[in-house]
Description:
Elements: H1 6-20, H2 25-48, H3 51-82, H4 86-90, H5 93-110, H6 127-135, H7 140-150, H8 152-176, H9 186-197, H10 210-226, H11 229-244, E1 247-248, E2 260-261
Antiparallel strand pairs: 1-2
Helix pairs in contact: 1-2, 1-3, 2-3, 2-6, 3-5, 7-11, 8-9, 8-10
Amino acid sequence: MPNLEPAQVGLRTRLFKLLFESDSRAAKAFDIGLVILIFLSVGIVMLDSIERYHQRYGELFFYTEWAITVLFTIELVLRIYCLQKPWLYLKSFYGIIDLLAILPSWLTLIVPGSQTLIVVRLLRALRLFRVLDMMILEGEKRLLLDALIRSRHQILLFLFTVLMVVTIFSSVLYLIEPAEAGFTSIPTAIYWGIVTLTTVGYGDITPVTPLGQFISVAIMLTGYSIIALPVGVFSAEVIRALREERYSREACPGCGRDHHERDARYCKFCGTWLDEDTLDPRHKTKSPEA
């Protein structure tokens, strides 16, 4: 990183604390303002899709959305400016969401016919996860994601087993039920089997033979008995994660990512020194000013 003047260093440090942390009144006020802008933007996209509102307030929606886009663009530029390794942030989940939040609007000025991408702006709602994570939800989101990752093998095995059961039962129904009942192919029968197993019951395809109705009952009872299995597995992993929760939520001044071990001194994603109050032994300087 090039050498910076003390005033620039102080500015970058203040911006980092404002944009990536939520332990001051200014940072919390910024987060609240960001939440309001996100809700306003998503609401405009939804209302603009209603024809009568589009005809009456289309011009107001247009200029308001562009004002929000400009604010989001400025915010992203400031995030990039205050990080030591901004390219790592741009490749992260939230960095990609930040880019998708503004690119569709700017593309309409460059690429003809890209107006259809405007609906992608609804992805701005995903930015609420980061804001809420810093403001009130803290690490709960991360804890749930960890529990989901830990239980992925059991859940995948469960889904595979359910798919096999549905395929077998549906193939039998395809053989014994007439085409007039709706069982015109095995994929159609599998659709019926999934709807029946999950007890949704649209009623667009129904068996008419006694054997087919008996198999339907068996699938329904099977659905009631196994549908709660992944919930139990996931709940057990959540409890386990609560007991083993050991991660820090402090953002890295290098790339802006969190979820480091509480005793970690360096970022596991980019190697930046994490303790802003002590000197980095490698460079003999504080991390934000490195």
